[in-house]
Amino acid sequence: MRNHFYVLIYLLILSTFSCAQQNVIDSLLLQIKSGAADTNRVIYLCDLAWEYKNIGKYDTAIYYSETGYTLAEKIDYKTGVASAYNTLGVIYQIHGNYSEALNYFFKTLKIAEETGNKSRMQATLGNIGVVYKKKGDYPKSLDYYYKALKIAEEIGHKDGIAVWISNIGNIHTRIGNYDKALVNYFKALKLAEQNGNKESQSTNHGNIGSVYLYQENYPKTLEHFSKALKLSEELGDKQAVAIHVGNIGNVYFKQKEFDQALDYFFKTLKQREELGDKELTATTLDNIGATYLELKKYVEAEK
Which of 153, 249, 162, 269 is nearest to 205 (CA)? Predict the structure, then answer.
């Protein structure tokens, strides 16, 4: 079995569908229908695209993003163009289309630099780092994470500081520098606790667990993965929940508790298919196949 567990990283804030979110979408749709073709309309279109992205309706999100930046370009509203580009970059990243994701993130970064929007600059630099990490270009990924961290420190963005420190730890995990990874993750976790940011806390518990999994310290791995899962469930973050459930399945796989591993893998498979996350769906299918192989159920494994 290859390195099949997944370390959770940040793009921007991910959330899940709820009645409150439906109310937000309904309100934005009304604003778009009744509003004039001005900057406010662009804001509503971009916000609507982001909300649809959050609930996994990516085609609808792309439609409203493209509508938003078309109007924003027409009225020369650069901030609106950048917002639409950013959402498109996130969507293409989720779909594994990294060239398009980078295309839109670099366009977003250029506008952020032109307008002096440091908050968007640090977020976009970090997002570019995420894409390079997924492409396996770890030196470039680290470079962009450190650039994002520097700006986050300049503007005093506490949550951003925790995010990029955590992502730096992620790269050290990928290249096998486990001690450096843990130093960064625990530092980020402490900042997240101080900031009261449960999403960041969940992320860092998951990341800490991933390092302990590499080190085959299964009790500590399960401790931190379970804490991460509990926090993500409290937040209603479906994508994070799916990742943590899959990670727990991998712990059971490593301990050769294959039946329990399958329970978690099939649970996360359903979650990932519902989210439309092709990359993680493929990873989960591979995990299920590897588990059946260990059980010598070759027909199921091949499937």
Answer: 162
Domain boundaries defined on the chain: 16-116, 118-231, 237-303
* Contacts (Cβ under 8 Å, ≥6 apart) of 81: 69, 72, 73, 111
| 3-class SS letters over 221-267 | HHHHHHHHHHHHHHHCCHHHHHHHHHHHHHHHHHCCCHHHHHHHHHH
Give dist(CA 20, CA 47) in Å, integer: 15
Tens of pLDDT, residue by residue over 93-136, are 988 899 999 999 999 999 999 999 999 999 999 999 999 999 99
For residue 81, report the phi and psi dihedrals to the nearest 5 degrees.
-60, -45
**Secondary structure of residue 201 in the 3-state scheme:** helix
For residue 63 the two structure tokens come to: 């439609």
The Cβ of residue 239 has, within 10 Å, a number of other Cβ atoms equal to 20
What fold does the segment set 118-231 form as a domain?
1.25.40
pLDDT in tens, 263-288: 999 999 999 998 888 888 999 999 99
Four-way CATH pick for 237-303: 3.30.450.40, 1.10.760.10, 1.25.40.10, 2.40.110.10: 1.25.40.10
What pLDDT does 3 receive?
Answer: 40
Binning the chain into helix, strand and coil, the percentages to the nearest 5 are 80, 0, 20
Helix intervals (H) in 78-177: 78-94, 98-115, 118-135, 138-154, 158-174
Asked if the model's pLDDT at residue 9 lies above 50, the reply is no
- The CATH class given to the 16-116 domain equals mainly alpha
With beta carbons less than 8 A apart as the criterion, state whether 44 and 28 touch. yes
Whether 237-303 and 118-231 are alike in CATH topology: the answer is yes
